[in-house]
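Fold this sequence, please.
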Amino acid sequence: MARLMVYTTSMMVFTVSIAVLTVSAELHQNTLTVDATDRENWAYINFTEGETVNIADAVSSLAWDLGFKRTEVIANGGISGPGKTGALALKDISFEDVLEAPQEDYVLDTDQITTFARGDGWYTYTGPPNHWVLPNPKVYVLRLAIDPKAQHASPYNYAKVRFIGYYENNETKEGSGHITIEYVLQDDGTRFFVESVPTSVDSKGKLTTTWAAIKS
């Protein structure tokens, strides 16, 4: 009887600890349009806030993630800011199928070129007669450094981003300089872009699955 009581107690403790773990994880999913029409000043966004933010001094601020000015895009890292944000462009894969962030090969903005201008960049310019700016079919994965003062198990959070359009009306191509992106931010320090499943115990006392299945 004593052994049975100890076993039951340990199972209860294990169940509670898993429940706390899954509650702490959160995916921030958002579609955001940024007014990047100003040719002189950057428009900054914060993934966690899900909106544009006013930044007085971008080179010393951790309060922004990406900056936009017309077709230019910068990340808070390297020459652009103190956040050490690196990006990696993925091709030939859909946004929905990127379920895990790569471990390495992230690059930062430099004096010579920004992350989002590498390769063929985030957009294609069609030239005359239309002069359209059209997003390229890429998924960008970002590795974002966390404030070192924060209590966190990992030094990084991860996000995936895709560009949807460059116009207020992307069907008619009217109102240029309005960049729309879709992103998913995982704020628990893991590299997985999947929702956690709350832990529960069935009628027979067996622990059920605690995480969503991850597509390989």
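The longest strand covers residues 156-169. The first helix runs from residue 2 to 24.
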